[in-house]
Amino acid sequence: MNLPAHKKMLSAAAAASVLLITAACGSSDEADASPEPTATSAAPTTEPPADAETPDAGNEEAGYADGDYEAEGSYTNPGGQSTVKVELTISGGTISDVAVTPEATNATSKQFQTKFAGGVAEQVVGKTLDDLDVSKVAGSSLTSQGFNEAIESIKAEAGV
Amino acid sequence: MAHAWRFEAIGTAWQIDTQEPLAADVEAAVLARIEDFDRAWSRFRSDSIVSAAADGAGEWVLPDEAGDLLSFYDELHDATGGAVNPLIGRALADLGYDADYSLVAAAAPSAVPPWSSVAFTAPVLRTVEPVVIDVGAAGKGLLVDLVSAIVGRRTQQLTVDASGDMYHRGASPIRVALEHPLDPTRAVGVAELQPGAALCASATNRRAWGEDLHHVLDARTGRPTADVIATWVVVPHSCMRADGLATAHFLAEPEVLMARFQHDFVRMHADGRIEWSPEFPGEIFT
Hints:
The complex is a heterodimer of chains A (160) and B (286).
Chain A: H1 12-25, E1 67-77, E2 80-91, E3 94-102, H2 107-116, E4 119-121, E5 127-128, E6 136-138, H3 145-158
Antiparallel strand pairs in A: 1-2, 2-3
Chain B: E1 3-9, E2 12-18, H1 24-41, H2 49-53, E3 58-61, H3 66-79, H4 89-94, E4 118-121, E5 124-127, H5 139-152, E6 158-161, E7 165-169, E8 174-180, E9 183-193, E10 197-203, E11 208-210, E12 213-214, E13 217-218, E14 223-224, E15 228-236, H6 239-248, H7 254-260, E16 264-269, E17 274-276, E18 282-284
Antiparallel strand pairs in B: 1-2, 2-6, 3-5, 4-5, 6-7, 7-10, 8-9, 9-18, 10-15, 11-12, 13-14, 15-16, 16-17
C-alpha cells in the first residue's frame, strides 16, 4: 500500500510547540537555544503577545514581519550536543509554512529528534469516508442504548 | 475477511471478522470471557467486584488479568503525573456518568483518592476506604486482547473490533479510517494496521452529556479534559496498551509518552490542530 510521506506543513502553534519540545528535552541551561532570524532584523518571538483579553495561545500573529526565517535551536542530551533547524515563512502577519529538520549527528539523538519532529497541522481538513478505501472506522466508541436514551430524554426535558 | 460476527457487550458494539464462521463453542467462550470480565470490573452492575469495593474498605480478590492491567495503570499514572488514575470512578459518577446514566452533574463532585491509597498484591487489592474503580482507560483494550486470544486459538486471521478499539492479525494489513470527532461522515486520516498491531481511538464527542462534560477525566482535578478532543494510538501486540495510551494522550505531552512507551499516535485539539508521530503508519489529511 502506497502512502505519501508525512507532510511538514506546520502552523504558528506548531512552531511554538516544536521549540518548546526542544527546550523540554534539553538540559534547559542553554543560552544558545533561542532561534535567531536570518532573513530580517525584526526578531520574531515565540511568546504570544501579553494581552489579558486574548488568552488563546493561537493569537500569535501580531508583530511578525513577513519573510522567510531560519533558526537553529541546540540543546544538550545524553548523546551530546544536538540541533534542530526550523525554517518558517511569514506572510500577511501569520506563519504560513514551517519545516523542522533534525540535525543530529549521532544515532540516538537522531532517533529522539525524529520523534519530536512529528507532524503538526493547524487545521485538519479530512476527507469524506465515501472517498476512502478502508475496511474499518475508528472514532469514539458507539455508545450503548441506555446512554443514548438518557441523552435523548435530557434533550427532551431541556427542549433542545 | 469473509465472515463478520456482530454483537453488543459492555455497552458497545463488537465485530469479529474471520475467514470462516466461528464455531459455536468459540463464540460461547468469547461471550463467557466478556461476562467474567464485566462481572469483575464493571461499575455499572451491582454484582461486580468493583461495586462491592465502592461500598466499603476491604480485601478484594481480583481476576488474573488484574496483574497486567494494574501494573500498566501504574506506568500510566507515573508517566502522566497522576492524571491517569483508576480511582476516578466516583468523580465520574458524580459528574453524571453513573450506573443509571443520570447524566446530571453533582454540584461538588468527589475528589479523586490517590492511587497510592490502594495496594495490590496479586490477586488481592486492599482498600482502606470505599473506592470506585473505573478501568475505562485501558480495560476495553485488555478485553479485546483476551477475546483475540480465544479466537486466535482456532484461526490465524482475525480482526476484533470493539467499536474503535481493535486488534488485527492476518495475512495483510487493513486500512482504518480515523473518524473526524466533529463530523462522523469524514476522516482526518487513515491508519494502516499491520498484522499483529492494535489500534485504539478515543474521542470525547459521543460519551458527552453536557457543557464540558464527557468521560475523559484528569484525576488531578477531577474534571473532564478540554484541549484534546480525539486521539488514536497504534501499538504492536497489545490493545490494552494502545487503549491506555490513547487516554494518556489527552493528559500528557506527546514527547513524554513517546520517550517512555513504544507506540505511534495522532491527536487532535479542540481548535482543529492535529499532531502525529513521524512514523505513524498511515496518512493524515491536512
